[in-house]
Amino acid sequence: MKISTVFIVLLLLPLISGCSAIISAPETVYQPREVQLLQHGRHSSLLLTAADQSRLRYSFGDWAWYVESDQSLASGSRALFKDSKGALGRQIVAPTTAGENLAAKVGVGIGQAYLFQVEAAQVDALIKSLEQQFAASPSVPFYSAERHLSFVPHTRPYSYSYNSNHQAADWLRALGLQVQGNPAWGNWRVKETTTVKDD
Asked: Phi, psi (5° rounding) for residue 98?
């Protein structure tokens, strides 16, 4: 593919991918636990609060692009248009503090943070699943000082049809949120708020 063709396709991607993905929070939560969807440009990650109030950030991306920092045009084109090796990233983040600078804590820029209250049991189940996947990897975790994440190969390949935003949407669904529309381009909208029941 010629370079000019690649650029034209990249410019058309927002139109191809649709306008946005709409997130609907659960109407009622009885045992709330905080989670945050973090948007870093066109890439998204998920910050989960564990039972002990520590936080775990998970991210999905193309291995060559995010782990090996190969951000050449050839690498970007391959990541967009072909299935490639996926990477599961994990970061331990300190508990919430008053007036915290979350971007400073995670070590990367945050364009937008979306906070949700979801059932604690669903957060625990997702953390357990992701921790099991991380621990089961035959590869030694690779720590990226640039990303502030430890990476292992993901069981699913990365592609434009399943990128970090698709994975984030699936994680949100596992937490009981609804995601409608196409999340490919990372244009998120939140439709509803949640009522927390304390009885």
From this structure: -60, 130
Q: How many CB atoms lie within 10 A of CB 197?
A: 10
Contact, 13 vs 157, CB < 8 A? Answer: no
pLDDT in single tens digits along all 199 residues of the chain: 444 444 444 444 544 445 689 999 998 999 999 999 999 998 999 999 999 999 999 999 999 988 888 766 655 555 566 668 999 999 999 999 988 999 999 999 999 999 999 999 999 999 999 999 999 999 999 999 999 999 999 999 999 899 999 999 999 999 999 999 999 999 999 986 667 766 5
SS3 for 154?
coil
149: tokens are 């994440």
Kindly report the CA angle at 18 between 13 and 20, in degrees rounded to 5?
A: 120
Give the integer Cα–Cα distance in Å for 62 and 80. Answer: 9
Answer whether 87's CB lies under 8 Å from 60's CB. yes
C-alpha span between 48 and 62 (Å, rounded): 22
Taking the model in full, what pTM does it have? 0.84
Is residue 47 within 8 A of residue 93, CB to CB? The reply is: yes
Backbone angles phi and psi of 156, in degrees to 5 = -115, 140
DSSP state of 159: B
